[in-house]
Design a protein that fits this description.
The chain has 338 residues and is α/β, with parallel strands linked by helices. It has a single domain, classed as TIM Barrel (Alpha-Beta Barrel). Helices cover 29% and strands 17% of the residues. Helix 3 runs parallel beside helix 5. Iron/sulfur cluster binds next to loops.
Length: 338
């Protein structure tokens, strides 16, 4: 039995860790980061061994799902070693404690062709790939890099490696808004689920997020006018609510931080590549796990830090998007990887 399961002060069990292995990325998506980003000095970033040790401390406390994130996790050199090490906690050897039910990853897909087979061999079964458009020019405009062909090749390689791919699409007014049905058809035609996500006001970016904020209530209405959406009980342990699409045979998910709060069933925390545990995507409450890891009594210090995190975890986020409004947080999404 895990020592003391992670339970926050609202009675929510925390079983899902989103672990960022780097804040760096090979893309510069306009709603996520600025063109000129000051990334974390390497000296401040945890080693893979330290990230592994942190992950084990969470597994000890009842975490059963770990998602590796970035920035872009696959740009971190040797990250596959961490995936392999954590993969060994999925099917534990005789007499060894296991505890991990799922090891997964969110990627922008540009490096998937290189890593898909290794991820599958290490025990990863499902991955999320960010894909906001199939239009090469729009992709280059949104990501500030012309990499759509690599992403599509990467998705194909992941499928060929036996990985279940779910596409994550940020719904952007006046940008990919009218392409959403085509994205859904493409995804379902290739056997992939697709989740639509509302823009979240994290970090300063060029331009006003309100210009491209598209409520998913509007998108769902439009899709329901086109297709038969059947509410689905499918759950992945994340905040999405799912619908089956009768005509395509596929599934659409909706992540609605602004139009449909999902914090009541929150089961997750995030750790940055420098070991900062953010208890909520929408909050500033955090504890420093790096100091605990590097202390004289790391086990005890880590246990105390996790207890503290449960004590300070807020009930919910208070995101708001309005013309000219400042971001809810100065922290960029890329620091916690969503
Ligand atoms: S915003 Fe915070 S409380 Fe709400 S679901 Fe996300 S992490 Fe949990």
């Amino acid at each position: 039995m895990p020592s003391a399961p992670l339970l926050d002060s609202f009675g929510r069990g925390i079983t899902y860790l989103r672990l960022s292995v780097t804040d760096r990325c090979d893309l510069r998506c306009t709603y996520c980061m600025a063109e000129r980003m000051a990334f974390l000095p390497r000296s401040e970033v945890l080693s893979l061994e330290e990230l592994h040790r942190l992950a084990l401390a969470f597994i000890e406390r009842g975490v059963t799902k770990i998602r590796l994130t970035g920035g872009e996790p696959l740009v971190r050199r040797d990250v596959i070693d961490l995936v392999r090490a954590l993969g060994r906690r999925l099917e534990p050897a005789e007499g060894q404690q296991g505890g991990l039910e799922e090891l997964t990853l969110t990627t922008n897909g540009t490096r998937l062709t290189e890593f898909a087979d290794d991820l599958a061999a290490a025990g990863v079964r499902r991955i999320n790939v960010s894909l906001d458009t199939l239009d090469r020019a729009l992709f280059a405009r949104l990501a500030r890099r012309d990499r759509l062909p690599q992403v599509l090749e990467g998705i194909a390689a992941a499928k060929a490696a036996g990985l279940a791919v779910k596409l994550n699409t940020v719904a952007l007014k006046g940008l990919n808004e009218h392409e959403i049905p085509a994205l859904v058809e493409w995804a379902h035609g290739h056997g992939h689920d697709l989740t639509l996500i509302e823009v979240m006001p994290l970090g300063e970016v060029e331009g006003d997020r309100a210009d491209h904020y598209l409520p998913l209530t509007v998108v769902r209405e439009r899709l329901a006018a086109r297709w038969t959406l059947i509410e689905s009980g499918h759950r992945t342990g994340g905040p999405a609510s799912y619908f089956e699409v009768a005509e395509t045979g596929g599934r659409i998910g909706f992540i609605t931080p602004l139009t449909g709060n999902f914090c009541a069933t929150c089961n997750r925390v995030r750790v940055t590549a420098t070991g900062e545990l953010y208890t909520c995507l929408g909050g500033t409450e955090k504890v420093d796990l790096r100091a605990a890891l590097r202390s004289d009594e790391p086990e005890a210090a880590l246990a105390a830090a996790l207890d503290e995190a449960m004590r300070i975890k807020p009930e919910r986020h208070h995101f708001r998007i309005a013309p000219g409004a400042a971001p809810a947080l100065r922290r960029h999404m890329s620091l916690t990887g969503g």
